[in-house]
Amino acid sequence: MSSARVARRIAAGAAYGGGSIGLLGVAAVGVLLAEVQLAKRSVGGGVAPLPPGADGRYGRAYGTETPLRLGLLGDSTAAGQGVRRTGQTPGALLASGLAAVAERPVDLRNVALPGARSDDLERQVSLLLAGPAGAPDVCVIMIGANDVTHRMPATQSVRAMASAVRRLRTAGAEVVVGTCPDLGTIEPVYQPLRWLARRASRQLAAAQTIVVVEQGGRTVSLGDLLGPEFAANPREMFGVDNFHPSAEGYATAAMALLPTVCAALAMWPEADRIDADRHENMLPVAKAAAEAAKEAGTEVTGARAPWALLKHRRRRRLPVPGAPAADPRAAEGRPEGGTGGKGEDGEGGPGSRSASVRQE
Fold first, then answer.
1. Is 126 one of the annotated active-site residues of the chain?
2. Taking the model in full, what pTM does it have?
3. If residue 300 lies in a helix (H) or strand (E), which one and from where to where?
4. Catalytic status, residue 241
């Protein structure tokens, strides 16, 4: 069965209340559990620090214009577990980058929970929508890895995602989902666990894309986005626990998400149309979802049902820790009144990060 058909079956099972679609056979599960015990001896050798709080206002230098509101939901990757400084979290990176592109302040609220699975999204959405400011202008969701490692039924996982996106879209928020990362890129994981983890991760990512697009959101495949970097620079791309990304890893992921976040708000210079030179295409949504799961950094956005647009947006560099600001307006990235501790410059938040938006 093709990967597109498997993803469509999972999504259909979630929509119509079907049971779990078995991703792995009984014998494979036995091997998987044995390999997990071996992997645990290598993964998680250190203790990841609790993620620093990053809530607050970014881009204050852009004046008193009404700020954009950015919400983050998901698991430890959305929370930024594995880094110690506010400015290294994906929330701070995305908020600073969005402020630089929009030339407006951005208010960030992050309700992500380390260890969360997709069934926690209902609580997170309720928490976000209950805030005094109401629904954010745009929400970013990053979740799925714990669903795979805890063997959460794929249909249950996807059903929870669809419900979360639907609630946020109904409330008026744009939604961008960073789909389940490819767990087969974690270096200490051995075969056949690595192959099984990759297969399950990609199937879940494709199914997530289908339901997100059907609910009016957009997705960006995280996939093996960090694979080459992990292989070449494992000490730099992994955090201290050998599992969560390092500051460089989070910056790579955030740089892939930022163009789609801006495009969702009609603030990106590229239109939502096919650029043949960048190998973009219009495909049935299930086919687009399966193709995106194979190629990290690929955006899928709805077109005319049942078609979806497969985009490879040009990226722009995100702030670099300690780098001088290319633009004094873009340098202002500290959260105002936020909960994060001190940043690189010791003044609270990612103030020392340049928010250059130079096109790659």
1. no
2. 0.81
3. strand 299-302
4. yes
